[in-house]
Amino acid sequence: MQFFKSKPGVLQLQLLVWLAVSLLLFFSYLPMDGAGQSAVYTILNVVFYAMIIYGNILYLFPVFYQRGRYAWYALLVIAFIAVTGILRGYANMWVYNTFFAKTPERISREIIIKYASGGVLIFVMSLIVRIAIAYFKLKQQTEEILVQKSRAELNLLKSQVQPHFLFNTLNNIYYEAYREAPRTAALIERLSDIMRYFVDESPKNDVAISTEVQFIENYIALEKIRIRHEVVVVFEKNYNAELRIPPMLLMTFVENIFKHGIDKLSERNIIALSLVQQDGYLFFKTDNAIPTGTAGNRDTGFGIVNLTQRLTILYGQNFELKVDQRDHNFTACLKIPVS
Prior knowledge:
Elements: H1 8-65, H2 70-100, H3 109-180, H4 182-201, E1 207-208, H5 209-224, E2 230-238, E3 244-245, H6 251-260, E4 268-278, E5 281-289, H7 301-315, E6 320-326, E7 329-337
Parallel strand pairs: 2-4
Antiparallel strand pairs: 1-3, 4-5, 5-7, 6-7
């Protein structure tokens, strides 16, 4: 039924076509039959024309012809035209004999054949209507594509100009800060690297694992500055430097640690990270203590749910994702195939 869900312009085109057909029929009948009889015949014939046209467009053509069942399509078209022609002939003769004829006429074979053969012309008309509508829709789609292309080009220009300005500004701030406060300058540099990762790397299908690890380490360094007490991060790394993985795949675990796994009252928080490649798989594990007062109430949030959905899209069932909470510790483990 996609035909009836067309945009308003397509619907208006159909209405204009039917209006033109109705007027053409009405004025062709008018000289011989008068206004009342012409109007009735016009309505009756337009109904049968619509049956043939929409029967072909909505059912016969898409179900049989477009699926390559050409023989069935030809046979059913012939049968459909014959049946609708016979019905049209009987309906017209019944209306004429019942309401308009002074002397009822007998329904003959010749009359039925005449009405049935007239359906061929209507069938051809249905193909013309379909081509016209297809052209109209194609024109609309082309215009929409051109508009979307223009918007995409504009957005691309914006995405190029804005980060360029921002990175240049950060670089200027970095050089100013470097002379007065080298530690602050180093943090600005990490922030710049994180933002550059979001702009340049995250849209890609895969990134170098070293780039992903650097992104995580920059994030950890910036998170540390907002925590009053010491945070010790032990990060074990053992993988092929040439390895590439989807971007932002490991970040969810690290982000969850700083959201839920840091005890701001403790003078020392210890976080253990492990990223190891072994036997065709990459293993990523995080381990952190659960802050006092939140044990048993740890919520993995939407991050893990979204990550699971993304892993399913990327790897099907060929991955493992486990989270475990016990003895005041929270552990998350991810195993994905790599080549």
